[in-house]
Amino acid sequence: MEADKAKEEAKYNSQSVTVITKEDIARKQGKSVEDVIFNEVGVTRTVDAMGKVGISIRGADPRHTLIMVDGQPVLGDVSKYSGNGDELMRIGAENIERIEIVRGAASAKYGADAIGGVVNVITKGPKSTPSIQVNAEGRYHSSRYTSDYESSALPSNFFLRADSGKVGNFSIAGWTSKRDVMPVYSKDRTYGGGSENLWYEKFKPSLRYYGDVKNSGVSGAYGFNPDHKINFSFNREREDVERRNKSALGIGGIFEPMQVFNQNMKRDTY
């Protein structure tokens, strides 16, 4: 059995640390970081009234969970108030080397945002040998109550990555991906239109945002000698998601309009 460096180092940490390796991620068959971490002990998913996902570690408030990518804190839009749980939906699982989860207060090491714990996502760097990786998935989705997004007959996920391998002292990798985020329906609310529920459009309220997330990026490394190396990366994220909601049934449904929340995010990280 081959030893894993990150897991061995975690044994000597003063806090409870779990390291999820790329082999663990492959076994779990998750599409994003969010799919991978929420069956870990002490890690809980929360969804607020606006459909925002949060991460609670050992019962702490989601805004007290620090989310990092490659050791750098993620700068979310409302992270100080609701946490950065949505960030983990935006990171595809195929491009991850490992995920480190620190349970419990870690402010002394990571700062004031780590009162509850830390989730650190380490992405894959350029490989030393040339390679191409292609993942693709298609599925059929059908429902009596559909939005414009869901009515698409064949949602699809794909991931494409190419590594140059080591060319002299230089290596580079590039990737692109697209993932569909499916809705999580409210169990007791359906609106069938017309005479059934006194509403003109068929839909079921979703408890969270759904749509598609696109990622692309480039990472590289140049080694000056065996002890000195410089790394660089560029990442582009595009998110187009929505959430439809309505709470009243029957007569009340006539006077309550359907609420459509759109969330479009564009971000470049260097």
Brief sketch in words of this structure:
This protein is mainly β.
Task: Report what the structure shows.
The longest helix has 7 residues, at 22-28. This protein has 2 domains: 5-123, TonB-dependent receptor, plug domain (Ferric Hydroxamate Uptake Protein, Chain A, domain 1, Beta Complex); 131-269, no CATH class. The model has no long low-confidence stretch (mean pLDDT 80). It is mainly beta. The chain has 7 helices and 13 strands.
User: What would you report as the Rg, rounded to the nearest angstrom?
Assistant: 21 Å
Number of separate helices: 7
SSE order, as H and E? HEHHEEEEHHEHEEEEEEHE
Q: How much β-strand is present in the residues?
A: 35-45%
Total domain modules: 2
- Helix content percent band: 10-25%
Question: Quick check: average pLDDT?
Answer: 80
Biggest β-sheet: count, sense, barrel?
A: 6 strands, antiparallel
Shape: globular
N/C terminus separation:
37 Å
Runs in which pLDDT lies below 50 for 5 or more consecutive residues are: none
Strand order of the largest sheet: 8-9-10-11-12-13
How many strands in all?
13
Structural class comes to: mainly beta
Question: Which keywords apply here?
Answer:
270 residues, mainly beta, 2 domains, six-stranded antiparallel β-sheet, 13 strands
Secondary-structure map:
Layout: H1 5-10, E1 16-21, H2 22-28, H3 33-37, E2 43-47, E3 53-57, E4 65-69, E5 72-73, H4 79-82, H5 85-89, E6 96-103, H6 107-110, E7 117-123, E8 131-138, E9 156-163, E10 170-181, E11 210-225, E12 228-245, H7 252-255, E13 259-269
Parallel strand pairs: 4-7
Antiparallel strand pairs: 1-6, 2-3, 4-5, 6-7, 8-9, 9-10, 10-11, 11-12, 12-13
